[in-house]
Amino acid sequence: MKKTKTIFPLFILILFFSCAKDSINKKDVDNKNSVITSKNTSTQNLNISFLLDLSDRINPQKYPNESMEFYQRDIAYIKSVSEAFDTHLRNKRVRQMNDKIQLFFDPAPLNENINKISNQLKYNVYKDNINLELLDNIKETYTKKPIEIYDLAIKDNSYVGSDTWRFFKNKIKDFCIEDDHRNILVILTDGYIFHKNTQIKEDNYTSYLTPQIIRKFRLNSSNWEEKIEKEKYGFIPATDHLESLEILVLGINPDKKNSYEQDVIVKYWSNWFKSMKVIKYNIKSAGLPSNMDKIIKDFILAK
């Protein structure tokens, strides 16, 4: 009996220390106001991608906003997403780490410095490289570097438009979808799509959407939805089988001249996602970051 009592506590100690090696040092993490516990452990592998629209919508002179400039809202949205990514990682066991976060543009900016900064925002976190220093580095980088991107883009004052449609057609599957991951694409846009080299029209379906097009199609009256359904207005499907991609669209900023503009934009995007078999998506207007923070984090951290 004495021998059994000695072995049992020893077994418990060995098991405890073995499990302790499977997570980031809890004392250090507690000092960062985060706690890793078995109850909160997430087993999902996140693959988060940003697609930034650096068209003239971010120009504070052309589209000023007294409460908060639109480019500043973008920066805050990016920060909210990165904080959710950080929370996910700090509540995950080390051996389960295989998570990614990255940022894209289409077309790529002509400014080489912007492209260099975007490369600094690409992280692949896995069990062999994870440590507290890396987590803090990701958090700091996503707080500071997006500001540099927008400052450079505004300073260059060379807005080449947004070829979001072409990105979906040629790059979305290669860049934003990984097997065995929860793939999330965060699109920062005012809801309009236009690029001079991608102006495709098939009947009433287009690869672009502008305020001028909405007026041309006469989608500026109370029967806008009936007109869209009857005359089949919308985006041309750019690809298909995006069932494994979740999409969060942030920053919708409709032309104020049309009371139905936002409804039309949301309808265009919703129908487009459905045509490409996107199962989960959310489309939000350019709200103040303090109001959007919870919405963003709830989407990213959904189980």
Automatic annotation (TrEMBL):
Classify the source by domain of life. Answer: Bacteria
Kindly indicate whether the keyword Signal belongs to this entry.
Answer: yes
Organism this protein belongs to: Polaribacter porphyrae
Recite the UniProt keywords alphabetically: Signal
Task: State the name under which the record lists this protein.
Answer: VWFA domain-containing protein
Using the record, list the residue span of the signal peptide; answer none if the entry has no such feature: 1-20
